[in-house]
C-alpha cells in the first residue's frame, strides 16, 4: 500500500501515463486525524498521539497504516502522507461519513498533499493491448 504522492503507474511508459492530480488536506485535532478533499468533504481517518520519548505518531483506522514517530504533529502528518495513495484516500471518502468540525480548520496543524489518479490505458492510448 505504501507509495509516494505524484507517482505514475509503473506498468505504462511515463510518456503514456496520463493522470489527474487531486489535492487533499490532512489535519490533526483532539487526538484524531481529519482529511478533506477538494470538494470540502471532511472525514475522520485515524488517530494521532504523542508517545513519550518517541514523538507524534499517526495511526490510520483502515489497513493499520502508521507513521514513524516525529517531533511535531505536522511532521507526523507528512510522514503518513508518504504512505497514502489516491485510491486509498479516495476510497475512504467514498465509504466514510462526513465528520463535523466546529472551529477554524486553518488553525489546526495540517498539510496539503497532491495525489495523482492514473487514468486507465484505454483512455490515454488507442493502441490495442499486446497479446501473448
Automatic annotation (TrEMBL):
<protein>
    <submittedName>
        <fullName>Uncharacterized protein</fullName>
    </submittedName>
</protein>
